[in-house]
Structures are given as structure tokens and as C-alpha cells.
Write a structure and sequence with these properties.
binds zinc ion; 14 strands; 409 residues; single chain; 22% strand; six-stranded mixed β-sheet; alpha/beta
Length: 409
């Protein structure tokens, strides 16, 4: 054996040097304002695991973001493989959120990441938005953007939108006190959205699968800007809040557009107070929840759901009504024809306010289409209070809930 061992002091130094080299985030720390702890503790909600979502998740993993939830409804198809760095051919047929979470964890094993298969417009509880420090969207339609926008403003969270088409794209940052996505919508945007809505509601599923031509180069550029803005937000640095970064790939031109807040915009409804309740959508009844609402907002308070829920299908010809009670996101077009008049499409009746005289008060919230971990509004004459179904946090947040601190800012 070699008796010439290094002195204890030298060994300590050697150990430290090795640890330093092992530190994958060492180069970030050379940036003067960088705080890796802020990123390690950050909670980011990524909505959409398509071309943009893949790039966003890849970036979050490389940056060492500690807590991520990824939401998508779709499954991986062969055509995704040309624009999705996280997917392999073997993932075909798997849920995008599952495959994306697995691959993201491979890049950064210390990340806690939870996949959720859900329709963002109808089935994503508001509690998930409230859990997040920042929401990043990678979606391709106005309806989903509007849903995210309203949810974020309700729970006072910033969100970063990305949009791509061919080789051009836009990244935008919306913060609670600034102009929102709805403020930016033009008459043309509204017309296109109305066109979608004026069709039978139940055909939405088919209409949502519109295919946008895009490339992996433009998604990496726009997702890069989105993620960088998220890093700045998490550090408390100035961002392009209220503005849009536009990149035109053909002319290699980029510029910022500034948005104005519209006074008559409907999206700025923020819940001032949100109460965490140890209740679950699957077990609390509508009657019980209305009782809770009246405890907090007065005897005349009504209970508002976070979104429209399908009540019944009514045949406009023979009047046959079929009670459905479901989230609009879970109803397929196939159920729409009247059972007696095969040629007639039933009309959809929805509701989103409960006043106390309804026939379904003894159903659970889950049974009328309220998603788990949602936040309902108790609206009284002089006060409105958010009521969070926090009993669902564990099942919805999964590994992210282990953080154990359900303290909100
Ligand atoms: Zn607005
Ligand atoms: Zn009929």
C-alpha cells in the first residue's frame, strides 16, 4: 500500500472540486442575478405537450426547475415525431403528458413532474392554476387560451402564451394587473371563436383537432423566449409583461408589440379571497357545497361553477330530454342525435350557477361535471369568496403534493 496519502486538508479540497464539477448548474451561477434555489423551488404549470410544450419542458429540465405539472389530452402520433424532442416512435399511442413527463425526468431526474390527461377548457380544476407560480401555454387555439387566461386572472397568476404557425411565432406575457389575452383579441379573433361556439357544442372535439403547419425550429425559438420570460418572472426581473415578442422567420425580423388593457374586458375577475376546504368533488354534494357557500357569503349566496356544465340534451323536434350532467369536455359528438328522431341533433342545455331549487342537489359535484381540485365561487350580495376543493390536491398533484406546503401567496 502506498503510505503517501494526501493530507486531510488536501482531500477535502479534492472532494469539493469534484462536487463542484458535478454541479450541473455551475455555469448558471456565473450569471450575476441567477438564483438556482428559486428555480429548484419553482412550481410551473405547462399546458399542452405538443411542439411548443416539448421545447418548454426540455428547457425547464435543463434549467433545473423543481416542480412541474404537464397537462394534455392527446396521444402521441407519428406526425408528432418531427417536432417533439421528447417523443420516440415507441411512444406512439401513449398519452403525450405521460410520455413527456417520463422523458423530461430523464433529462433532470431531480425534477418532480406530474402528468395530467385533461381537457384544459373543461376539466382542469382551478386549484392546479393556484398551485403554480407561473403558467406556460403551448396551445393552438383561442378557446383554450381564453380558458387559461380567465383561470389565471381568477387566481392571480401570470401566464406566458406561445403561438406558432409555419416559421413565424409570438410569445406573450400576461400578468394579473396588466392587459390580458382577451384584451388582445381582435374582432376577427372573436368571429373565429364565435364560429366555433355557434356550432353544436358537442362538435368541439372534432373542431379542436385543427392541424397547424409548424416546424421544430420555430417552436424552439418561441418556447425559448417563453421559458426565458418564465425564468425572469421567477427571479422577479422585468419581463415583456403586456407585450408580445413577434418573430418572423422568413425575413428574420423580430419586434415587440404593446397591448392595451380594455376597460370592458371580462377576464379580469379576480377572486379576492380563496378558502381551502378539506372537501373532494367526488364526495361533497351540491347541497352541502351550497351550504358552505352561504356560510361564507350570506344566506342568499349562489354557487358559481368555474365553467359551463352540460345539464341536458333536448330534442328540438319531439322535446325528448336526456339528463347528462357532464363536463362539456367529456361528451363526444356521438351522443348528440335524438333517440327518437335519428336525423335531429339534440340541443345542449348548460348551466353554471346553482341557486338552491335545483333537482340535483343531492348529486356530488363530480357527478354534475365539476373537475377535481376546482375552485367554485360563493357569490353573495356584498361578498364573493372562492371555495377550493383542497381535499383533491393529493390525487391531482400526485408527487407534487409531497412538497407538503399548501401555503399560498
Ligand atoms: Zn383583459
Ligand atoms: Zn326527437
Amino acid at each position: 500500500m502506498n503510505e503517501e496519502r494526501p493530507s486531510p486538508d488536501l482531500r477535502i479540497t479534492a472532494h469539493d472540486v469534484r462536487a463542484d464539477e458535478d454541479d450541473r448548474f455551475h455555469r448558471f451561477k456565473l450569471i450575476s442575478w441567477w438564483d438556482q434555489n428559486k428555480l429548484r423551488n419553482a412550481r410551473v404549470l405547462v399546458i399542452g405537450a405538443g411542439a411548443l410544450g416539448n421545447e418548454i419542458l426540455k428547457n425547464l429540465a435543463l434549467l433545473g426547475i423543481g416542480n412541474v405539472m404537464v397537462v394534455d389530452l392527446d396521444k402521441v402520433e407519428n406526425s408528432n415525431l418531427s417536432r417533439s424532442v421528447l417523443y420516440r416512435a415507441a411512444d406512439n399511442g401513449a398519452y403525450k403528458s405521460d410520455a413527456a413527463a417520463r422523458a423530461t425526468r430523464e433529462i433532470y431526474p431531480d425534477m418532480r413532474i406530474e402528468p395530467l390527461v385533461a381537457n384544459v377548457v373543461y376539466d382542469l380544476g382551478l386549484g392546479v392554476y393556484r398551485w403554480a407560480d407561473v403558467v406556460i401555454g403551448g396551445l393552438d387555439n383561442r378557446e383554450a387560451r381564453l380558458a387559461i387566461n380567465r383561470a389565471c386572472y381568477k387566481v392571480n397568476r401570470p401566464w406566458i402564451d406561445g403561438a406558432i404557425e409555419t416559421i413565424q411565432g409570438t410569445a406573450r406575457v400576461f400578468v394579473p394587473d396588466g392587459p390580458c389575452y382577451e384584451c388582445t383579441m381582435s374582432d376577427t379573433d372573436w368571429k373565429l371563436l364565435q364560429l366555433r361556439r355557434s356550432c353544436n357544442l358537442l362538435t368541439r372535439q372534432e373542431m379542436q383537432t385543427g392541424k397547424t403547419p409548424t416546424t421544430p425550429t420555430i417552436s424552439s425559438i418561441i418556447a425559448g423566449v417563453q421559458t426565458q420570460e418564465a425564468v425572469k418572472l421567477l427571479h422577479g426581473l422585468e419581463t415583456i409583461a403586456g407585450k408580445g415578442f413577434v418573430f418572423a422567420g422568413l425575413s428574420t425580423d423580430s419586434y415587440l408589440v404593446e397591448y392595451q388593457r380594455k376597460e370592458d374586458c371580462y377576464s379580469h375577475d379576480t377572486l379576492g379571497q380563496i378558502i381551502s376546504l378539506d372537501l373532494r368533488a367526488d364526495t361533497v354534494t351540491v347541497r352541502e357545497m351550497l351550504g358552505v357557500a352561504r356560510e361564507h357569503a350570506g344566506e342568499d349566496a349562489v354557487l358559481e361553477l368555474g365553467r359551463d356544465v352540460l345539464h341536458k340534451l333536448v330534442c328540438p323536434k319531439c322535446g325528448t330530454a336526456e339528463e347528462m350532467f357532464a363536463s362539456l369536455g367529456k361528451v363526444r359528438a356521438g351522443v348528440a342525435p335524438c333517440p327518437r328522431c335519428p336525423d335531429v341533433r339534440s340541443e345542449v342545455q348548460t348551466f353554471h350557477t346553482i341557486r338552491g331549487h335545483e333537482s340535483f342537489l343531492d348529486r356530488t359535484l363530480g357527478q354534475i361535471g365539476v373537475p377535481a381540485f376546482d375552485i367554485l365561487t360563493a357569490r353573495g350580495k356584498s361578498i364573493s369568496v372562492g371555495l377550493e376543493l383542497s381535499g383533491d390536491a393529493r390525487s391531482v398533484l400526485g408527487v407534487l403534493e409531497q412538497q407538503g406546503e399548501l401555503e399560498w401567496t
